[in-house]
Amino acid sequence: MTTSDLTSATIASLPLPSSVTEPRTPEPDGNARRKFRTIWISDVHLGTKGCNADLLIDFLDTTDSETMYLVGDIIDGWRLKKKFYWPAAHNDIVWRLLKRAKRGTRIVYIPGNHDEMFRQFTGLNFGGIEIRRAAFHDTADGRRLMVLHGDEFDAVMLSHRWLAFLGDWAYVSVMKLNHLVNSVRKAMGKPYWSLSKAAKHKVKNAVEFISKYEEIVARAAGERGVDGVVCGHIHTAEFRAFEHQGRQVEYWNDGDWVEGCNALVEYEDGRMEILNWPEEMKQREDAEASRVLAEKGDDRAQEAA
Predict the structure, then answer these.
(1) Is the pTM higher than 0.90?
(2) What percent of the chain has pLDDT over 90?
(3) Helix ranges (DSSP H) in the chain
């Protein structure tokens, strides 16, 4: 079977708009949603066991925006070519994205290297989702941002594709261990923790690669005359400001939903922030627990009176 046959077979087996079924877990009715002007997410890697689908479903069920960018590697075609894996939760995510588009959110999908089979559909629209090779976004306060996945600037991807596949194999192995560790943590009542994220911060070569990558991407944005860039690809959520020919260029990476579980958001006034969703969920749960305790305290006080 040729690479093109594999690509065709992979696409044909995926739950595209015409074949997406009703979700296993429906959207909660009357759920309060945090409103943003724009949301960016990337590196979801649907089709792999490493995808933190339940956390992403929670994010989609509790947020909303006028525009949403899917900044690549939403579906992991590399893994699906080797072994098909598509649990109900992954279908639920696709359903939610299509539902969001139907409600009027503008959704722009920029395929990355793991879902590069969708790049052949650049310029088309599937279920209200626009497919683009790259995009430009104007913030509410007048900044112009270039939006792309970022594999275009990865020297390993460009020069040694075989090494990228080897690295993918090693990465999947770490993700399996990460899944096991967090299954144990969940059973113990502890929050999500990223093993690979902690390891990357400890390994000098990984830190140097990430820093160099950020610099290269920011320089490319500066050369194109924009105020900044939003990308994904390296699974490291970050904001940095660089100088380029006397101008400040912003570098934003929206992270991933395998390790860090991050999203980049823009508020109505143009301010931008990287959200770490496990932390957001913990804060919400702590606030709810405090509210319940306060209500119980009020009830006891009324009974005593």
Answers:
(1) no
(2) 56
(3) 3-13, 53-62, 77-82, 88-102, 155-159, 161-187, 195-202, 204-223, 277-304
